[in-house]
Predict the 3D structure of the following.
Amino acid sequence: MKKSKILINATCDSSKPSGVGVFNREITKNLISIDPEIFFVYETIDFIPEYKNKKILSKSFSSESGTKGHFLRWTWEQTLLNFSCYKLIFSPVPEGPIFFKNKAIVVHDILPIKYPEYYPRQKYYFKYLLPLIIRTSKIVFFDSYSAKSETYNYYKITKTPYKVIYLGYDVNLYRKIDKGFIKSKYGIEKYFLFVGEMRPYKNVMNAIHAFFKTNLEKYRLIIVGRKDELFFPKIEKLVLDLDLQNRVKFMDYVPLNELPHFYANAEALVFPSEYEGFGLPALEAMACGTPVITTKLTSIPEVCGDAAYYISHTDIEGMSKAMTDIASNNLLKNSLQTKSLERAKHFSWEKSAKEYYDTLKGLI
């Protein structure tokens, strides 16, 4: 095989990918479909088993190994990767070898800067090391103009080139599909859906309060997201305090092949986030023809356009009204479904990868 000029550092992965993990896998798969000479390095999970031009790192480098795994991966990036013979190193995450000049990174957000109390270790990396990596990169990619503006303004970056490339979705998975899977497997019929982390800025507790205030007795609220040890207990207690344990169901992590069914069968996605670098759940829901109840904060309007039912993340009554409106007004629901499907057509992983590849190729 001909020597590759581009190396993808796809080592920030996990066995249960979501958000950045999904991006890492999808952009890597789509880039090598454009250029099969690309070489990539991954950790633990071989997510492209048929592809030969790759190398696996030790399992101890895995992000699932916690702080130790992150430290070992960072050490590898700053030592062996720094002396790479490739002409360009591309990292789908905000990491990279500081002294390797011809590199490109992706900064999805600066959550540890915005909410340092929720990221006690990462906040130091984002405060002291990330700005150095940004300034020594050939280009920095962002998922949204909101993320770019916030990042460059905070770090006072003026010289490093940047490019905004929106995320995509798997068109073979996220689409308008026949309903019935969720009912047959989980016994759930009518429900609203929340997808995301349990951290407070996602406002899952506000979504629960809003659901409690509705008179939609036949509906349930399904919460998809990892039950972390820090935030989940408080959320679970709220459900018990409101006596909603029979109407609110926590699904924990849902496999990617089942997630589209949860979207497609939902009355609406309730996504009252106050901070996003992009907002992938909103796009995935729209691709399934599901109405989205969300905010106009950060990047979300860039993703949803005029296809969402917008609310304030602090307005419990408004959020409750949005759920009731969609459940009781078929004209409104059908309009949002149509707009969602049309809006989703603006995005795809193939389109994103083409933009990435054209830009990266220009750096070689």
